[in-house]
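BUG: 3D viewer hangs when loading the predicted structure for this chain

Environment: internal workstation, default settings.
Expected: structure renders.
Actual: progress bar stalls at 90%.

Input used:
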Amino acid sequence: MTGWMDGYSRRKTIAIEWMRTFFLSRMSASPRRPATPKVVVTKTVEDWKGRLVYRVPSGAKDEAAMLDFVNQHFVPLEPLNVAIDMCEPGYRMAWFDNFCRKYISEGLSLMAVDSETNELVGVSITTECRRT
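C-alpha cells produced before the viewer hung:
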C-alpha cells in the first residue's frame, strides 16, 4: 500500500532519528557536564561510625542548610538535569526549593551531621505517601 502511510512512516522515522541525534549530541557534548570526581577513600566505615549524628531538622536554619546542600550536591549533578542542560550551576529553582521545603516541614526528613566538624554531610528528604 502506498500513499499516506508511506509518508507518515517516513516522517516518523525522520523525527525519531532527529530526536536520537539531538539527545545523543547533547549528552556527549554538554559543556556543563561535570568531570568525574576523583575519589580517594581515606576513611573506612569504622572511622565514620562514631562521627555521624542523624537528626530531624528543626527550624529555618536547618531547612536552609538542607536546601543549600541539595542545590549544591544534587541538582547540578543529577544525570537528567545534566543531560537536558536544565540549569546553570548555582541557579536556584524556586519551585524545587518550595517542593523540598514542604517535605522538610513534615518532620520525616533527616540530616546527617559530622559531629566533629558540625558539617552537614547528607540529607534524606522524605514524605509519607498514602493511597487515596
